[in-house]
Amino acid sequence: xxxxxxxxxxxxxxxxxxxxxxxxxxxxxxxxxxxxxxxxxxxxxxxxxxxxxxxxxxxxxxxxxxxxxxxxxxxxxxxxxxxxxxxxxxxxxxxxxxxxxxxxxxxxxxxxxxxxxxxxxxxxxxxxxxxxxxxxxxxxxxxxxxxxxxxxxxxxxxxxxxxxxxxxxxxxxxxxxxxxxxxxxxxxxxxxxxxxxxxxxxxxxxxxxxxxxxxxxxxxxxxxxxxxxxxxxxxxxxxxxxxxxxxxx
Length: 249
What we know:
Blueprint: E1 2-8, E2 22-23, E3 26-27, H1 28-37, E4 43-48, H2 51-59, E5 63-66, H3 74-84, E6 93-96, H4 106-113, E7 125-131, H5 135-139, E8 145-148, E9 154-158, H6 173-176, E10 180-188, H7 190-196, H8 203-208, H9 212-217, E11 222-226, H10 237-247
Parallel strand pairs: 1-4, 1-6, 4-5, 7-11
Antiparallel strand pairs: 2-3, 6-10, 7-10, 8-9, 8-10
Helix pairs in contact: 3-7
């Protein structure tokens, strides 16, 4: 059984109440839930720290649990939510779906869930990557990049383009190497998720402000599935305006 969990905090520095923002007559969190429900998930549950979000999700027929407000990361919030659900033994994969991506494609979720279909070959952790298609993407520190080994496991994540090309000017890098960008969609085996919540902040994580580096430093392998589909996260009022324009409202 594959369980989809959606962390949704009310507090946001740049966009307070973000999950409840109206996007063409539906809240952002309702759109995320609706997209997730089209994927191959047995169950979709919102994990929130705010009763307003909890009631809203329940009002539109979704499932939600109320978690503590002081979790340092969405990973910790997911683990508490899984515990509140009784840690069902038939769950072999938990997919962490970002609550601020109302246009997430079900195929992206399925790409990760499919990696866990066979227990013998299932990864500990999986995430999603896509090819970088523009110089703006490549050099944006807001869009982390990733390099992989020959088996599709992550070697490193960075806000800086990797690898550095000694023999070419930065403007030529895309023409001489296939760069990959990381999309913030994760899946875990339940036992691994529990272990991740017990890890202290690592030096690489602190330097790059990327939680997944903590896992790599601790020795966990992160399998990467590739997609050509983009992600569209909402963090600012400007992003809300772009989302509404995309919806034609």
